[in-house]
Amino acid sequence: MPIYEYVCEDCGARYERIVMNRNTRITCPKCSSAKSTIQLSVFAAHGNGAKSATASVESGASGGCCGGACGCRN
Length: 74
Hints:
Blueprint lengths: L2 E6 L5 E5 L17 E4 L13 H7 L15
Antiparallel strand pairs: 1-2, 1-3
């Protein structure tokens, strides 16, 4: 079940919805408008636990908690 992020075109509210079916009607939780724009989602994956994210950042290892795929290198 994918989680989609939306921005309401009427009031500008940002919200997420789990979408079971592409035909599901999505409405804004703030103003109930059906006019929304789907946003690209950014996600982070945690490592295998061999080294904590804090230790990676403090030691200067590139990538930090998400492996650097999103460009968050320190």
